[in-house]
Amino acid sequence: xxxxxxxxxxxxxLARVRGNQNFYFKLLNMFLSSEQFTEFENVYNQGDFVHAxxxxxxxxxxxxxxxxxxxTDSATELMNLLRLGNDDPQKVKxxxxxxxxxxxxxxxxxx
Length: 111
Hints:
By secondary structure, this protein is mainly alpha-helical. It is built from six helices and no strands.
């Protein structure tokens, strides 16, 4: 069994939608336009870490449902810290890099 984490776990993602690639790509496209990313940045930058953790929970859920493995892991770790009111700028930086890589990979995949 391959345990390597992927930006997009296409096999699992497609299995979630019974192999309907058009529908899966539509969901990935909807993910790209989510307002949760901006909301996270706004509340995080205001220092409201608990609220930022709740927004991160929504991002984690979207990523998990779409089988975006690396983003799911990063968002889960960050969510757990922030919900306790803790900040870790390095984890936020890692999340932002993974999010950017995920967005770029999705755009390349669905074009």
